[in-house]
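hiii so um. not sure if this is the right channel but i have a protein structure encoded as tokens and i wanna go backwards to a sequence. like what aa goes where. can anyone help
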């Protein structure tokens, strides 16, 4: 299949409710404030250890407004961002050292073996069907060079439960019914009164299995927030204090790949490579 037909595949369509959610423009500030900064700093921490030395070509798939592309470009990487949301493409395209274009993770507008690194820090948890997630990973494998790195983010299956308990909302209907169903099915539906859009919350073992189906060799998994994000009160104050912030990052780093604790994080990074 040629690059052009992949990009124009009519079977690849982003759900309207997902596009509408991100068209509100909230994503640009989400990781820059409050407790969500822990997710941002830990993603940055892990990627800086995994990525090849700059300069290298990075494809940031579903990169949103460019919150990660921005620092990657500052670090000296050649960053190309692909996102299905027009607002995100516009925002990312204004960043120094970043090029941005519209596109979908399942049909990337890119040549075979053209990037050193492919990041999917958002697409997998907006693809409820397993076949679509494997297709996105297969596309990442196609466009990354042999030996190149692919890193994908997932939302953990019990993140909703943990968050509702932390906010003391699990005791209230209809939150409890929705969360109980999410734990069983892994699917979050925006129509059910949640604060997010359509998403899939995965068990830690699912991403490595989907990497394998896409012919990617898994090299590691990294829990981003550990248990720190579950602390009631204090976490934002910790992140505001440079010394405590570094302590939290160090503590989380200690347990980031402990198999028994992978599911405690809100988000998980899975890293793999194209072997041939």
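sure thing!! here u go:
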């Amino acid at each position: 299949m040629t690059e052009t037909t992949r990009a124009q595949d009519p079977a690849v369509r982003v759900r309207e409710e997902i596009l509408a959610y991100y068209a509100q423009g909230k994503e640009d500030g989400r990781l820059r404030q409050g407790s969500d900064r822990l997710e941002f700093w830990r993603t940055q921490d892990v990627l800086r250890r995994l990525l090849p030395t700059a300069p290298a070509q990075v494809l940031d798939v579903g990169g949103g407004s460019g919150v990660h592309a921005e620092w990657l470009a500052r670090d000296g990487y050649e960053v190309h961002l692909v996102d299905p949301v027009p607002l995100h493409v516009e925002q990312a395209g204004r960043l120094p050292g970043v090029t941005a274009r519209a596109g979908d993770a399942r049909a990337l507008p890119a040549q075979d073996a053209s990037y050193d690194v492919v990041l999917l820090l958002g697409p997998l948890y907006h693809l409820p069907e397993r076949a679509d997630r494997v297709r996105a990973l297969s596309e990442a494998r196609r466009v990354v060079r042999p030996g190149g790195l692919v890193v994908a983010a997932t939302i953990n299956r019990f993140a909703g439960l943990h968050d509702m308990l932390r906010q003391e909302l699990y005791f209230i209907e209809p939150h409890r019914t929705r969360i109980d169903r999410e734990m069983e099915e892994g699917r979050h539906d925006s129509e059910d009164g949640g604060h997010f859009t359509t998403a899939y919350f995965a068990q830690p073992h699912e991403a490595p299995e989907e990497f394998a189906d896409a012919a990617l060799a898994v090299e590691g998994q990294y829990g981003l927030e550990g248990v720190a994000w579950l602390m009631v009160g204090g976490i934002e104050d910790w992140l505001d204090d440079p010394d405590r912030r570094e302590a939290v990052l160090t503590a989380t780093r200690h347990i980031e790949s402990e198999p028994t604790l992978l599911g405690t994080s809100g988000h998980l990074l899975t890293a793999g490579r194209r072997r041939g």
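oh and Residues 1-5 have pLDDT under 50 and may be disordered.
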